[in-house]
Amino acid sequence: MKFPNRIFHDIKDERVIEAINTIPRELFVPDELRDYAYKDSALPIGYGQTISQPSLVAYMTQLLDLTDDKNVLEIGTGSGYQTALLAKLANKVFTIEIIEPLQKRAKEVLKQLGIDNIVYKLGNGYEGWEEYAPYDAILVAAAPPKVPEKLLAQLKDKGKMVIPVGKPGRTQMLKLITRDGDEFIEEDLQYVRFVPMIEG
Ligand code: SAH
């Protein structure tokens, strides 16, 4: 199955579209929702969490300017769908999830697809993952009320972070943050609705 092209009208980076079209989204959604896998909508994946809509997954990925020499930190593995796309475009993905059964399921699907440049951690994304820092790119898939300092500290110089920021239950602002030495340049992109980032 393929997505209708129009859902990627905002995506200028052909590599992102090519890569997303190689990932079977139906494997990342619950069996009973497979008929909706190629529609541009977010879907529930259990435990109160959701898989984001594919157009947003592609858009957030495009913002990171990934190449196959870059390492990415992802906060919120969820279904593993976004992880798969990052893994296709980057060197390595370090992904953190706080809900164990979601991580287990994501790992199984990604293994089944033969995507093996992913390192998994069960833990709290607010802490980031010091061991492999700094990262060329950081993608946050759950919304904290403000940008976590520890994540900023783990971003490489000239690196980019994409993150939804806002209070739980409200719309959040999707931000692109680019590091320039000790400075962080923040751009507000669009309103989005993500699940809240769970406090440790
Ligand atoms: N990109 C995912 C979307 C996941 S939804 C996908 O494509 O499926 C957000 C995920 O962030 C959920 O799985 C949730 O459990 C996880 N999460 C929430 N708070 C977190 C935290 N503090 N640390 C790590 N993961 C967290």
Description of the molecule:
The chain is α/β, with parallel strands linked by helices and 200 residues long. The protein has a single domain, classed as Rossmann fold (3-Layer(aba) Sandwich), CATH 3.40.50.150. 22% of the residues lie in helices and 30% in strands. The protein contains 5 helices and 9 strands; from the N terminus they run αββαβαβαββαβββ. The strands form 2 sheets. The chain has a 7-stranded mixed β-sheet. α5 links the parallel β6 and β7. The site of S-adenosyl-L-homocysteine (SAH) has 24 residues, from β2, α3 and β4.
What's the number of helices?
Answer: 5
CATH class: Alpha Beta
CATH architecture: 3-Layer(aba) Sandwich
Globular, elongated, flat, extended or rod-shaped: what is the shape?
globular
The first-to-last residue Cα distance is 38 Å
List the domain count as a whole number: 1
What small-molecule ligands were found? S-adenosyl-L-homocysteine
The total of beta strands comes to: 9
CATH superfamily: Vaccinia Virus protein VP39
Mean pLDDT: 96
Cα gyration radius (Å): 15 Å
Tell me the major beta sheet: 7 strands, mixed
SS-based class: alpha/beta
Low-confidence stretches: none
Range of strand content: 25-35%
Could you estimate the helical fraction of the residues in percent?
10-25%
Q: What is the chain-wise order of helices and strands?
A: HEEHEHEHEEHEEE
* Oligomeric state: single chain
